[in-house]
Write a structure and sequence with these properties.
- The protein is α/β, with parallel strands linked by helices.
- It has two domains: about 200 residues, Spore Coat Polysaccharide Biosynthesis Protein SpsA, Chain A, CATH 3.90.550.10; about 80 residues, no CATH class.
- Helix content is about 40%, strand content about 20%.
- It is built from nine helices and eleven strands.
- The strands form two sheets. Strands 1, 2, 3, 4, 5, 6, 9, 10 and 11 form a nine-stranded mixed β-sheet that branches. Strands 7-8 form a two-stranded antiparallel ribbon.
- Strand 1, helix 1 and strand 2 form a beta-alpha-beta unit.
- Helix 7 crosses helix 9.
- The protein starts with a strand and ends with a helix.
- The C terminus is likely disordered.
């Protein structure tokens, strides 16, 4: 199976200069089976696009006409990717030369949707129901063999494109960022597919701020990014209230949280507005078809 590599970019000129050459180097390893590299630029206001076209003409550049947010930008790039498998990398990810050698054979199992790469610091995470909310639990233990994970890392994983399309890609409910990959993993698992974590597929994720100081201007300050994170975690909980028992448990837990932390009302308001907006757009699209 052929592999496309998608790198999402937003005002990432410096990180492109630092890391893209390593992705190109890895693409020359025949074991990785990479035949195209795509940079999906989400309407950068720096010189990312001109730099790419000048310095890396072999890279395919997708230019968004306006800033869409991570989910929509990523979905657009995956749609245009020609590979059966699509690697999605953040700008601050540097793959090892043989990073796909151990991952690709896992896709012989037709139920495998994704394989997450080993960043060297944390193992596969877990999603649990705790205190009437969904909670994301980290894992600092690195397994020695391939294991299931509750979700694929959105910026350092490889996906089967056919299943990605079947699932509808990343949900724009979580735009502009945070927990869209967790939601995708939940939906994949519910549909009967497997999300794996491979310890021998090594990458270096430097966490150098794809949400960098220049990009923070759009969101005013880091406090607003924290609000987006909390809002999306609440939306993730709402999407997965599957029965009456969990619904009433959540309502009770939500009430307690607001009583003890009145500031959480702002997060509740932001989540409600986001949910209503997405439902309105969905109905409008359905009406047009």
């Amino acid at each position: 199976m052929d592999v496309s590599v998608v790198i999402t970019c937003w005002n990432g000129r410096k990180l492109l200069e630092k890391n893209l050459s390593q992705v190109l180097k890895a693409s020359k390893n025949p074991n990785n089976k990479i035949f195209e590299i795509i940079v999906a630029d989400d309407c950068s206001v720096d010189d990312s696009v001109s730099y790419l076209k000048k310095e890396f003409p072999e890279v395919k550049v997708i230019e968004q006409a306006r800033n869409l947010g991570y989910s929509a930008n990523c979905n657009s790039a995956v749609k245009e990717a020609k590979g059966d498998l699509v690697v999605i990398l953040n700008l601050d990810v540097i793959p090892k030369d043989d990073f796909l050698e151990k991952s690709l054979p896992l896709f012989k199992d037709g139920k495998v949707f994704s394989v997450s790469f080993n960043e060297g610091k944390f193992g596969p995470g877990k999603i649990i129901w705790q205190n009437s909310f969904l909670e994301i639990v980290g894992n600092d233990k690195i397994p020695k063999s391939t294991v299931l994970t509750d979700w694929p890392s959105g910026g350092s994983s490889i996906f089967r494109k056919l299943i990605w399309q079947e699932l509808g890609g990343l949900d724009l409910l979580f735009s502009p960022f945070y927990f869209e990959d967790v939601d995708l993993g939940i939906r994949a698992t519910k549909a009967g597919f497997k999300c794996l974590w491979e310890p021998n597929s090594l990458i270096d994720h430097q966490h150098e701020a794809t949400i960098n100081p220049q990009n923070l201007v759009k969101y005013q300050r880091r406090d607003n990014i924290s609000l987006i994170k909390e809002r999306n975690l609440l939306l993730l909980t709402w999407k997965n209230l599957n029965n009456t028992s969990s619904f009433f448990s959540h309502v009770c837990g939500l009430s307690k949280r607001i009583i003890h932390h009145p500031g959480y009302l702002k997060i509740l308001f932001l989540a409600t507005i986001k949910l209503m907006s997405c439902n309105f757009r969905k109905k409008k699209i359905e009406k047009n078809y």
